Structure prediction request, 183 residues.
Amino acid sequence: MHCYSEKLNQNSFFGGNKQPYSGQAPELVLDTEAIRKWGFQRKSKKHFVSSMTDVFGEWVPRFWQHEILDGMFVAPNQIFQILTKRPEIMLSSMDEWLSCHGLDKLPLNIWTGTSIENRRTLEERSQFLSKIPALIRFWSVEPLLEDLGDITQYLNDVQLVIVGGESGPNSRPCHIEWINSIV
Prediction:
């Protein structure tokens, strides 16, 4: 078990159900009331949307993804950070949503990101993220599992890079040289 959200799910202190991941997604519920409240929040803040799941997972209905984007659209004073391991689905869903709204780019308050763990995921995922018309695109390089090598060709496509190693028992190594090559 290496995903932080899976670890948190097994800890009831963080609201988890203490059930190991079975490979089957649990029954999902879209909290439309929470989405609706975004539009009424007066004080600006950053929201890490669905930090315990992937909004663009295959198990999430497309219309839910669009409903979440609609909620962000009507809350322009809030910043929404959406992180996915499936930027190809994010790109497709966002293209559909933009087309339905007659827009050519995402609102400024929607930041899109993808997880990067190694060179392979950098090459695979960054190509899709770079096509998303967002003001802020980011990588979450957590956990960094190997040296990414020369990343200069990719850096013009992102405005923010979050980097860190894995933590906790049985964590895999992360070398400071790998981090230094990114920052």
